[in-house]
Design a protein that fits this description.
The structure is a single chain. This protein is an alpha+beta fold. It has one domain. The protein has helices at residues 11-16, 39-50, 55-72, and strands spanning 25-30, 33-38. Strands 1-2 form a two-stranded antiparallel ribbon. Strand 1 (25-30) and strand 2 (33-38) form a beta hairpin. The model has no long low-confidence stretch (mean pLDDT 89).
Length: 73
């Protein structure tokens, strides 16, 4: 990191991840440290994390249980 806070990414790493001048990257501050990703890499990771989660189905089940409990009194 230089005095202006700019990071230098080695050429080999830039080439491997198709990064060029002006490429948009996302910096994540995680409990394990700093993670730097392209937008596409982040989108893939989020999709993988939520794949099969069935969040909508789970929400519907929760709402039905709550409605049944309310109806039961």
């Amino acid at each position: 990191m230089d005095a202006k806070g700019r990071l230098v990414i080695p050429g080999e790493t830039r080439a491997r991840h198709n990064l060029a001048a002006g490429s948009v990257v996302v910096l994540l501050d995680s409990p394990d440290g700093i993670v730097l990703m392209t937008r596409e890499q982040l989108k893939r990771r989020v999709r993988e994390d939520f794949q099969g989660a069935g969040m909508v189905d789970e929400l519907i089940r929760d709402r039905r249980r709550a409605a049944q409990a309310e109806d039961a009194g």
